[in-house]
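A brief tutorial aside. Many learners find it easier to grasp structure tokens once they have seen a single protein encoded end to end. The record that follows does exactly this for Glutamate 5-kinase. Read the sequence first, then the structure, and try to relate runs of similar tokens to stretches of the chain.
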Amino acid sequence: MTQTNSFSDSPPSRRDVIAQAKSIVVKVGTRVLTDSEGKLDRHRIALLSQQLCRIADTGRQTVMVSSGAVGAGMGKLGLEERPSGLAQLQAVAAVGQTDLIQAYETAISAQGRHAAQVLLTSSDLRRRSGYLHVRNALTQIHDFGAIAVVNENDSVAVAELMTTFGDNDRMAAQVAGLLSDCLLIILSDIDGLYTGPPTAPGSKLVPLVEHLDDSVFALAADSPSSAILDGPTSQAGALPKPKASSDTQAKNASPKRIMSKGGMTSKLKAAQLATSHGHNVIIGPGRKDDVLDQIMAGQSVGTLFLAPTKSIRGRRRWISASAPVAGALSVDAGAAKAVTVGGGSLLAIGIKAIEGRFSQGAVVSIRDPNGHEIARGLCNYPSDELAKILGSPSDQIGEILGHRPYESVVHRSNLVLS
């Protein structure tokens, strides 16, 4: 590639991108899976399931990350608006999840395979052991010839219901990070990334993004978290009313909302995370009936985001994507340069201050003198010991603590640049 700009009108062969992919993760959002009445669109699920099975028939590990539990529950319960109360959201998600997985199982089993329900919360991927268990489970599901249908466990993930992965966009990137040589396909109600608002005159679809930088994020102008189809909203915290009879609806047109928490910025952040792991990403039109078939045929559909040549692998991938940050280390300019430019480890002498209480092996955020995060990594010392040695040369650690198990505070092999 010779282009130096972020966008390109001359994309490389998509057939090559598809041929390199040994696993496929497809993420589909609520707006794609629900109709104008807010009910689960079973026809759309059937079309997607048929195409998923055709991908699986090529031997690739195939995973669907699906939103839609709350939307399905709203339709099943006859609710016109997404509940605002936490307990109500949990209950609606629980009701809807059964409909969602049943729809996938019906459609996938018709193709000779089975749907395997995998419900996750962000905490499931934060622990290294949990991260590996999820990866192993997905691998075994594939070995059995089934297709994993992953969704956020909204009925128990209290925090995630209110401040979620991002309509499953980030979770899809994290799931892709569990797999090898993966292509992440994010299906949206928008055809891809545009040079301006999609409906604005002169706005064009961007077919290829080679470098996902600030200029790309500047193009994303997210709409509010709900698409108002008609009518006013209900009072905050009020339980939405079940739909009235058809006669009543005709007399009193009621408001309908399709709720979605993931806008284009959320999708770009997911693409940024996935490409940092070495995975190519396509954001494409979820309502195109044969979208997955077209993508797998190498046709120019949506926007392709290319992964950089160098990417994050192994344990460092978990550190960057899923592990919880337990504390922060503020470093001086010399240490910041050594970490970001020199590729070095973080030494105690370069640390100016610490935040938080954490144990040995915890993931910490490393911040430059301006307070900006420059990296994350596994800390070799607990916070109480680190407080005693910060600013000290490495050869004095043993004298201060009585032992020196590590020369560095964060070794470069356990460090990921932000």
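Self-check: The mean pLDDT is 82. If you spotted this yourself, you are ready for the next section.
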